[in-house]
Design goal:
The chain has helices spanning 2-30, 42-52, 168-176, 183-190, 198-203, 219-229, and strands at 66-70, 76-78, 82-88, 105-108, 117-121, 124-129, 132-137, 142-143, 150-151, 156-159, 163-166, 205-208. It is built from 6 helices and 12 strands. It is of the alpha/beta class.
């Protein structure tokens, strides 16, 4: 009886070690940065998305859309109402991270966030409500590999009633040095919100985009397979999701 207990105990311990090793190996593989190549060029991607029916909308009807195609650099968009599709090819050069001075911004000068909803549709972001049907294509697509970073997203969303939301990367920089954002100059001069008073500026809320946006669950996988379809995956990382 004692011998059986020793044998089963030993097997149990070995099993725990094997499970721990397997989990560690799986975890390291699962969270390893995935190089999905370069982002697709804007006009080519929009043609591809239209042809394959990959452009979602708030109401499910894609007709009558207006497209805004952004290139590299810190682009700014000012929207009020309507149905728009935005595709940001990338921020700056491949491998460069967005900065406080150089990042993509979406500004609603006369809009309040109340009444708007932010939804994830695959790798895309939908902003719905208050007269808007806005699709930001591939918003959740990014390449996290060091030296090859890029993203198709927007790093800042500002509402004229007193709120600015920054990407987690920029918000972390902001919390360390709030002066870098230069909020007063940005609002009054760049965004042309000249009527913002000193009192309103003092009360202006700056927070992380993660506070209002859905998580990117499964979006990296969708971006990976889309880049595979577009022939943009580097040979060194083809099919790691299937392994």
């Amino acid at each position: 009886m004692i011998r059986l207990i020793v044998v089963y105990g030993t097997l149990a311990v070995l099993g725990l070690f094997a499970a721990a090793y397997g989990y560690t190996a799986w975890n390291e593989r699962k969270y390893r940065p995935l190089d999905i190549g370069e982002p697709p060029e804007s006009e080519a991607y929009i043609r591809f998305a239209e042809r394959t029916g990959r452009i979602p909308s708030c109401d499910g009807h894609p007709g009558g859309r207006k497209y805004i195609a952004l290139g590299a650099g810190g682009d700014r968009m000012f929207l009020s109402t309507g149905r728009f599709v935005i595709y940001d090819e990338r921020d700056t050069s491949i491998g460069e991270l967005p900065t406080m001075r150089e990042h993509d911004t979406l500004v609603f000068r006369r809009k309040v966030r109340s009444g708007m909803s932010f939804r994830k549709a695959g790798q895309h972001l939908l902003i719905c409500g208050n007269g808007l049907d806005l699709t930001i294509l591939r918003f959740f697509c990014r390449n996290p590999v060091e030296g090859r970073q890029w993203n198709n997203g927007i790093e800042e969303i500002t509402f004229g009633n007193g709120e600015t939301f920054l990407s987690p990367h920029l918000y972390e920089i902001h919390t360390e040095d709030p002066e870098l954002l230069d909020l007063g100059y940005r609002l009054r001069k760049i965004y042309e919100l000249e009527s913002v008073s000193d009192t309103e500026l003092a009360r202006w809320r700056v927070a992380s985009l993660s506070k209002i946006l859905p998580g990117d669950f499964l979006a990296p996988v969708a971006c990976y397979y889309e880049n595979e379809t577009l022939g943009l995956l580097p040979e060194s990382t083809k099919n790691p999701v299937r392994d």
